[in-house]
Specification:
The chain is 26% helix and 19% strand. The protein is an alpha/beta fold. The longest helix has 20 residues. Bound molecules: benzoic acid (BEZ) and fe (iii) ion (FE). The site of fe (iii) ion (FE) has 5 residues, from strand 7.
C-alpha cells in the first residue's frame, strides 16, 4: 500500500515552519535550501518507500561519515565533485569562455601553505629513496596564445608510493610531496619528486562501505594535483593522471579527463641517469598548462573551501 502525504498543504506548511519561514531571523538563502532538502527528502522517502530501518541506518551512516572526516571523499566518489566541474564547464561554454587546460576536481587532500620555491623544487624528503622511482616533472604555464606567464604559482601535491598524502598520513614529514613553485621568465616550472601511486579509499571506512554496496571500487589512478594561479588569470584546479595506470579511465572519483593524461616516460639509461644526478631507472614527465584570462577578481581565486579534511587514520 503506497501512502503519500508530502503534497498536502498541511505537510508543506509544516516543512516551511521547520525551514524557518515562520520567523524573520537567520539566513533567507539557507531557509530556501533547507525547505527544498526537506521537500525532496520527504518525496524520496515516499516514492522509494524508505523503511524506518533504512532511515535510521542512513542517520547513523552520516554520523560515522562525519566522525571519520570522509564527507569530502564520498562526494567525490559519488561523482558530485565531478558534476560541479561539468556544470561550470557548461556555464563557461554558454558564456564563450572556452580554451585552456581543462579543470578537474580538487579532492579532499589539499593542504595550504606548502614551501615556496623559485623556478624549481625538490618535493620528496628522500624517505622512500629505496622503493621509489625518481620523477622529473617540468613544463610551462602559458596563456591561450601560447605566451609564457612568468611569476605564476604552481601549487602541486601528490601521494607517495603507497598512495598516501602527507599531513593525513602522519608517518610522512610535514609538506612531503607538496610544493609551490613560481614560474621563471619563460613560464617554466621544474620539480624533482617520486612517481606517485594511486590513492585508494580506506577499506574499513564508511565511503568504501557505501561503494561496496554499490558494487564499486574506491581506487584512483596515479596522479598529481595542481592549483595554477597568476595575477590577471583565472585560477585553475586540475590534475595530471598518469598514462599506463590500470585505473586511468576507471577512476572512482571521475577526475581523469581528455587533455589531462600525462605521458610519463620511464628511462633506463645509465648515461642519462648520471646526467640527471640519479642512479638507475627514473621517470620524466612534461606538462604545460594554459590559463584563461580572468574577467573578475573572483576568477583569480580558488573557490573557498574549508581546510583539507582529515581522512586517513582519523
Ligand atoms: C585524490 O585526488 O587523491 C582524491 C580525490 C577524491 C577523493 C579521494 C582522493
Ligand atoms: Fe589525489
Amino acid at each position: 500500500m503506497t501512502v503519500k502525504i508530502t503534497h498536502t498543504a498541511e505537510i508543506q506548511k509544516f516543512f516551511e515552519e521547520a525551514a524557518g519561514f515562520g520567523n524573520d531571523n537567520g539566513s533567507p538563502r539557507l531557509k530556501r535550501i533547507m525547505l527544498r532538502i526537506l521537500q525532496d527528502t520527504a518525496k524520496l522517502i515516499e516514492d522509494l518507500e524508505i523503511t524506518q530501518d533504512e532511515f535510521w541506518f542512513a542517520v547513523d551512516y552520516i554520523n560515522r561519515l562525519g566522525a571519520r572526516g570522509e564527507a569530502g571523499l564520498l562526494v567525490a566518489g559519488l561523482g558530485l565533485e565531478h558534476f560541479l566541474d561539468l556544470l561550470q564547464d557548461a556555464k563557461d561554454e554558454q558564456l564563450g569562455r572556452t580554451g585552456g587546460t581543462p579543470r578537474t576536481i580538487e579532492g579532499p587532500l589539499y593542504v595550504a601553505g606548502a614551501p615556496i620555491a623559485e623556478g624549481e623544487a625538490r618535493m620528496d624528503d628522500g624517505s622512500e629513496e629505496d622503493v621509489a622511482t625518481v620523477m622529473f616533472l617540468e613544463g610551462r604555464v602559458l596563456d591561450l596564445d601560447g605566451k609564457p606567464i612568468a611569476g605564476a604559482t604552481v601549487d602541486l601535491w601528490h601521494a607517495n608510493t603507497k598512495g598516501n598524502y602527507s599531513y593525513f598520513d602522519k608517518s610522512q614529514s610535514e609538506y612531503n610531496l607538496r610544493r609551490r613553485i613560481i614560474t621563471d621568465a619563460e613560464g617554466r616550472y621544474r620539480a624533482r619528486s617520486i612517481v606517485p601511486s594511486g590513492y585508494g579509499c580506506d577499506p574499513q571506512g564508511p565511503t568504501q562501505e557505501c561503494l561496496d554496496l554499490l558494487g564499486r571500487h574506491g581506487q584512483r589512478p596515479a596522479h598529481i594535483h595542481f592549483f595554477i594561479s597568476a595575477p590577471g588569470y583565472r585560477h585553475l584546479t586540475t590534475q595530471i593522471n598518469l598514462a599506463g595506470d590500470r585505473y586511468l579511465w576507471d577512476d572512482f572519483a571521475y577526475a581523469t579527463r581528455d587533455g589531462l593524461v600525462g605521458d610519463i616516460r620511464f628511462i633506463e639509461d645509465a648515461e642519462a641517469a648520471a646526467k640527471r644526478g640519479v642512479k638507475g631507472r627514473f621517470a620524466e614527465l612534461e606538462f604545460n598548462f594554459q590559463l584563461q584570462k580572468a574577467s573578475s577578481a573572483e576568477d583569480e581565486q580558488r573557490s573557498r573551501r574549508p581546510r583539507a579534511l582529515q581522512v586517513v587514520g582519523a
